[in-house]
Batch of 2 targets.
Target 1
Amino acid sequence: MLHQNLEWFFPHTTEEAVKLISQQGVILHGGGTRILKTSPKSIKGLVDVGKLNMNYIHHSGNKISIGSASTYDEVIRFSARTKKLSMLVKALSEAASTPLRNRITIGGSLKDFPIWSSLYAPLLALNAQIEIADKHDKIISLEEYLETGIIKTKHLIKRIILEDDPQVIGGVKRFVLIRFEYPLFTVAVALRTKQNIISDARIFITGVKGRYKHCKRAEHFLIGKELNDENIQQAKKHFAPKFVSDYKYSAEYKEHAAKVFFTDLLQELKGTVK
Amino acid sequence: MKLPFKINNKQKHLELLPNETLLQALRNNHFTEVKCGCNEGECGACTVLLEGKPVNSCQVLAMSVQEKEITTVKGIGTLYTPHLLQKSFAEAGADQCGFCSPGMVLASYSLLKENPQPTREEILVALDGNLCRCTGYVKIIDAVEMTAQKLHSNKLVME
Ligand SMILES: Cc1cc2nc3c(=O)[nH]c(=O)nc-3n(C[C@H](O)[C@H](O)[C@H](O)COP(=O)(O)OP(=O)(O)OC[C@H]3O[C@@H](n4cnc5c(N)ncnc54)[C@H](O)[C@@H]3O)c2cc1C
Ligand code: FES
Ligand code: FES
């Protein structure tokens, strides 16, 4: 339960918001769906992001910026209008449910990074950048944000920046038994190809031991090769995510399922290679 | 504390605490047409429209939506003046115990307002956050399709 003397703040600038969250026990409020689940009594104040002008999606040149107060639904609608971000939007369209997608924000989902996140695997595969503000504003890769532990520090996420590269093909798959369920894992693959040959690959899986894995061995195997049946079967051997057993599934079962999903994804991409 | 909210097109003052969800705040202030099922964001019984879009009111902190337009099921039609969609729910036999109905009606209302002629798949997606333990869903989907058909054949605009 959140404390009943909780204080609310509605700042109009990100500078004000950053100052407010520098106080102990004061955190940002995006959609509130995770804050309500964790509901720590230690929270003394909530700083709402609603008036910070971070609810936008801009497309300029080859960059797409998604303001952190945008909801999953707003990203899906942007994609329906522009036909951009198809890989990310496939993942977000399958996340949670319609009423939750109307509420969950990009910023809250990035800072929180739940094990069932639908957002991280596609964004990491697409090599997204993140703009954050604490004492200074900075733009770093999302991977660096995780690797260096910045995610654990107090800061405000301003936006996500993605490259709109028509040479990149990609796909994403999540493990669920029914439509509305927390995914067990999500695997995402982005490939750049030239005359049928893979020139670059980014492969990520979330939901694994350590929350996420950058599958570099599988990437190295695929680069310089054609995406054909034989190489897909070989790539599977280089894709070895590690899981933790839980009350429903053993780690071995999850690893096997992840390998199947990975090869299915590559098979689907095979048909779209340019 | 008592704070102003815009509910069903009227200014209302809700007595609430800063840590309360919209669901708690509404029910504690006599908007009991908003139901509490799971309190976890999983059943949709607590659905209200926020600026016309369905949200789970149990997953929304009331203080964060003070300036937004909130619609409960009574905001689209009442027992004595039911909305076309509510009539279709009754005609199709889409209510049994009725606990899911406010959420189902609001989620369907929001869909039809934006897309008056949805496909069955679009209806399924729009209702993916609403559980019903009684009907088996078929009659609920029939009710939405029936409303779409009435809108089309009578050249009506979804109000
Ligand atoms: C039933 C259910 C099912 C779900 N299923 C899925 C799913 O399948 N896939 C999926 O991806 N998600 C799913 N979610 C959502 C996920 O679990 C989190 O609740 C959600 O991502 C949090 O986003 P929020 O905007 O509500 O964040 P909040 O609850 O507002 O905040 C979460 C954290 O982020 C911080 N924060 C908020 N905004 C910012 C910002 N701009 N900058 C920095 N920090 C910030 C907050 O201080 C807090 O620590 C589900 C949620 C529920 C309730
Ligand atoms: S009571 Fe809110 S979703 Fe179940
Ligand atoms: S009619 Fe009983 S839960 Fe739907």
Target 2
Amino acid sequence: MAMLDYVYTGWGAFWVTMFMFVPFALMAYWVIRRKSLVDTGPTQLQPSEFAPIEGVWMTFAFIFFVVANLASLKYIPWAAASGTTNGEPEIQVDFTAKSWAYDISNRQIEAGKPVRFSGRSSDTQHGFAVYHPDGRVLFTMLMMPGTTKPTSVVYTFKDPGKYAVRCLEYCGVAHHRMQDELTVVKAN
Amino acid sequence: MSIATTIVKSTPVFGKMFAVDKSTGLEEINAWPALMIMSSFVWLVVAGLLGLVMPATQIFDLSSDHFYTTLTLHGAALTFPFSFQLMMGVGLHRSGGCVGKAITGWLPALAWLSMNLGAAILTVAVLMGLKVSVVVMFPLPLVGAQMGVWSMESVIVGFTGIYLVLACMILWYPLLVLKMMFFGKKRAELILSERSLNEPGMLGMLLAAATLLLTGLPLVVVGTTLVLALYKVIPMSLAAWAADPVVFQYTFYLFAHNLMEAMALMVASAMYATLPLYLADGSRKLYSEKLANLALWVLLVTSVTSGLHHFITFYPNQPAALSYWGNIMSWGTGMGAAISIFTILATIWQHGLKAEPGIIAVLVGWALYILDGASAIVTSNIAWTYQLHGTMWQSGHFMTVVLSMSMMWMGVLYHHYPVLTGRKLDPALGYLYVKMISVGSLGAAIVMLAGGAAGMPRRFADWHPEGWMLYGNLILAFGLILGASFAVYFYNLMKSREISAPMGELARA
Ligand code: HEM
Ligand SMILES: [Cu+2]
């Protein structure tokens, strides 16, 4: 479980990408090198002998793709939310993004309670990314002006601490200064 | 003499690299492509240097304005007048020789002019202050003008430039391809290596042209409405629907996403056509043409709607069902990639490879493209995109897709260069280029993905917090290698030597 928790983070994404790329790159390097330098002649393999390899390869790719996505389902914020919000009171955090600051209804949050973030933009596209104190992105949200519904995410914080909020949608010359902070405190 | 030839001849430095050999009788398929290719490389030099400026502004703490100016110019110039134009030039030259039709008349001239003039006008707008990034981030241009960050004039100039660039990609280029494929007389003396539309080498070109045209038309309508309103031809109230951020963004990405896929189709098609020419046993056959075509079709069908992955974090404004759909379709393109991996490697395994710098550049570019594809499907997964959207991961993906395709075209160009110019390139320099660009581009790609994994934001003028500068320094280091590799490539083009053998023979060899 803990391993899956890691897989579905930013660094998990990095290693999964490498898992797809590195074996392919080694294989391609080996085939190209061998067939252009070592044993350049045609290989005495009949097309019928390629077919099973082709089948195995495509099946492997398909199964890997399906598993990687199915296993990710419970890490989708809206799916995770439907599991945790049963009966528990939700903390509601409303915010408005406007170049280049946030207006946040409540910056102090209790750990362990599901929080619903609902946000709007009042001018151009903005983001609202919450960073764990260790530097990871926990989730990011995209807001466009003029929508009838707010953009929304439910998240349950585990660790008390200071959480940076940053805008991750380019919004003009002071985009990098569009930041804020949430404080997560121990539940009493 | 074609106007194109004249322009190439009178361009300093670059003109020498692409002067068309007229003794071959192939000027009609060479002149405009040579001009397009030459122009694309001028943009590469300028915008590549700007790429190095970006990390430099961060390392030396220069004003954030410089960072955003450079970012906008770098992204826009490398995507459109460099990469797209390079593809257009090499692709047109290829298809001219495959179907035996001249690339002359007003359409190629219009395509070239509208791309380069448009990009130049956009550059002026950015220098006037319009720092909106390559993807415009609508309604940012208008909001910035309202806030007084840049002028309304710069917005009008900028949209005019973008409009011309889009017209080239959505109208002039695809129409030219369709015209060549279905109309006009085939001329035997222009045929270099005949291909039919059923072959992967041509099918991809056709599918790509159709994709650009069809997925771009809605954006043409929206863009035309906005430009007319900006020029006050129609009242703003009539354009309000097009200025709605959601309408604009969805039409924009329907095209922008498929633009990348169309470029991929085109370059995959060029690879399927070029690889057989370098097989050791002279069989000139892919492992399976059917499979190669299937890969193109899978890519096409899955890509049309996979662009929904750009808006997953907009939930619930983008309903969950559409996000699931975008997620699934994106991984479907991965199945297309899996088929192409098998086809390429089985072909080489079956027939052996006559290695030359050109084909090796194509293959390394393709490997880089596979890395990019892996990073792309990963970030199209809903769970992962919630943590990666808007980080350097996405810039890494964007830059790598454009760079890998450009690298493949530069390899294909290496193959076509003798026919285009009647001159020969030096293989040792060719290999040096391949080695350097492989290290530079792979390194930059992996570092940018890692930066994203670590939470480093994209398009962000402050890399100091949280230790992100580590990735910034590494991007600069690999970027220097990348820049040097281009210098080697150009040096090779500069010192290319006349071929003594009769060109006609060589072209048809
Ligand atoms: C010469 C070395 C290069 C360096 C040092 C470099 C550096 C960078 C950096 C740092 C970014 C990310 C900016 C950000 O999102 O904050 C970037 C983005 C990008 N680069 Fe490069 N780059 C180089 C060459 C290239 C080349 C050759 C191409 C295309 C063939 C290219 C295409 C792009 C594109 C399309 C983007 C995305 C722009 C955006 O998302 O706004 N770059 N580059
Ligand atoms: Cu913002």
